[in-house]
Specification:
single chain, mainly alpha, about 0% strand, globular
Protein backbone atom coordinates (compact mmCIF):
# COMPACT_ATOMS: atom_id res chain seq x y z
CA UNK A 1 0.00 0.00 0.00
CA UNK A 2 2.82 2.40 0.87
CA UNK A 3 4.47 1.70 -2.47
CA UNK A 4 1.21 2.52 -4.29
CA UNK A 5 0.93 5.81 -2.40
CA UNK A 6 4.53 6.69 -3.29
CA UNK A 7 3.95 5.87 -6.96
CA UNK A 8 0.70 7.83 -6.93
CA UNK A 9 2.39 10.80 -5.27
CA UNK A 10 5.22 10.69 -7.79
CA UNK A 11 2.74 10.54 -10.66
CA UNK A 12 0.86 13.54 -9.31
CA UNK A 13 4.08 15.53 -8.99
CA UNK A 14 5.05 14.65 -12.55
CA UNK A 15 1.60 15.56 -13.87
CA UNK A 16 2.05 19.15 -12.71
CA UNK A 17 4.77 19.66 -15.30
CA UNK A 18 2.75 18.39 -18.28
CA UNK A 19 1.51 21.22 -20.55
CA UNK A 20 -2.22 21.35 -21.32
CA UNK A 21 -1.53 20.74 -25.04
CA UNK A 22 0.27 17.50 -24.19
CA UNK A 23 -2.66 16.35 -22.07
CA UNK A 24 -4.96 16.97 -25.02
CA UNK A 25 -2.64 15.06 -27.33
CA UNK A 26 -2.57 12.08 -24.99
CA UNK A 27 -6.34 12.07 -24.61
CA UNK A 28 -6.90 11.81 -28.36
CA UNK A 29 -3.70 10.09 -29.53
CA UNK A 30 -5.59 6.89 -30.23
CA UNK A 31 -8.10 8.75 -32.42
CA UNK A 32 -5.95 11.22 -34.33
CA UNK A 33 -2.20 11.01 -34.61
CA UNK A 34 -1.63 14.71 -35.23
CA UNK A 35 0.42 16.92 -32.91
CA UNK A 36 -0.44 20.43 -34.13
CA UNK A 37 -4.09 20.73 -33.27
CA UNK A 38 -3.82 20.19 -29.49
CA UNK A 39 -1.62 23.29 -29.26
CA UNK A 40 -4.14 25.38 -31.20
CA UNK A 41 -7.01 24.09 -29.07
CA UNK A 42 -5.09 24.71 -25.84
CA UNK A 43 -4.53 28.34 -26.92
CA UNK A 44 -8.26 28.74 -27.59
CA UNK A 45 -9.50 27.50 -24.21
CA UNK A 46 -8.48 28.45 -20.68
CA UNK A 47 -8.80 24.90 -19.36
CA UNK A 48 -10.34 21.51 -19.98
CA UNK A 49 -13.65 22.56 -18.42
CA UNK A 50 -14.06 25.22 -21.12
CA UNK A 51 -13.14 22.67 -23.77
CA UNK A 52 -15.76 20.23 -22.44
CA UNK A 53 -18.41 22.95 -22.87
CA UNK A 54 -17.29 23.86 -26.40
CA UNK A 55 -19.69 23.68 -29.32
CA UNK A 56 -18.87 22.27 -32.72
CA UNK A 57 -19.08 25.80 -34.15
CA UNK A 58 -16.50 27.14 -31.68
CA UNK A 59 -14.14 24.22 -32.34
CA UNK A 60 -14.41 24.51 -36.13
CA UNK A 61 -13.59 28.22 -35.88
CA UNK A 62 -10.13 27.32 -34.55
CA UNK A 63 -7.49 27.38 -37.28
CA UNK A 64 -6.85 23.89 -38.74
CA UNK A 65 -9.70 22.31 -36.78
CA UNK A 66 -12.21 20.81 -39.14
CA UNK A 67 -15.54 19.15 -38.65
CA UNK A 68 -13.97 15.71 -38.17
CA UNK A 69 -11.69 16.79 -35.31
CA UNK A 70 -14.50 18.85 -33.75
CA UNK A 71 -16.85 15.85 -33.83
CA UNK A 72 -14.10 13.65 -32.38
CA UNK A 73 -13.67 16.03 -29.44
CA UNK A 74 -17.42 16.25 -28.84
CA UNK A 75 -17.73 12.45 -29.03
CA UNK A 76 -14.86 12.08 -26.57
CA UNK A 77 -16.57 14.26 -23.95
CA UNK A 78 -19.94 12.61 -24.62
CA UNK A 79 -18.50 9.32 -23.35
CA UNK A 80 -19.06 8.99 -19.56
CA UNK A 81 -15.84 6.99 -19.11
CA UNK A 82 -13.82 9.79 -20.68
CA UNK A 83 -15.53 12.45 -18.55
CA UNK A 84 -14.69 10.37 -15.47
CA UNK A 85 -11.06 10.10 -16.60
CA UNK A 86 -10.85 13.88 -16.99
CA UNK A 87 -12.54 14.45 -13.63
CA UNK A 88 -10.09 12.10 -11.90
CA UNK A 89 -7.16 13.83 -13.56
CA UNK A 90 -8.44 17.19 -12.31
CA UNK A 91 -8.85 15.83 -8.77
CA UNK A 92 -5.30 14.52 -8.79
CA UNK A 93 -3.94 17.81 -10.08
CA UNK A 94 -5.92 19.80 -7.50
CA UNK A 95 -4.68 17.58 -4.70
CA UNK A 96 -1.11 17.95 -5.93
CA UNK A 97 -1.39 21.74 -6.03
CA UNK A 98 -2.85 21.74 -2.52
CA UNK A 99 0.07 19.63 -1.24
CA UNK A 100 2.54 21.94 -2.98
CA UNK A 101 1.02 25.03 -1.32
CA UNK A 102 1.04 23.33 2.08
CA UNK A 103 4.68 22.29 1.61
CA UNK A 104 5.67 25.85 0.66
CA UNK A 105 3.81 27.24 3.68
CA UNK A 106 5.58 24.84 6.04
CA UNK A 107 9.04 24.79 4.51
CA UNK A 108 9.11 28.13 2.72
Amino acid sequence: MKNQQRISSTGIEQSKTVPFESVLFLLWASVLLVRLWPKKIAKSFENIDDLQKATSKKLVNIDEIGEKIAQSILAYFANPSNRELVANAKIGRTAALSHRRRFKRIYG
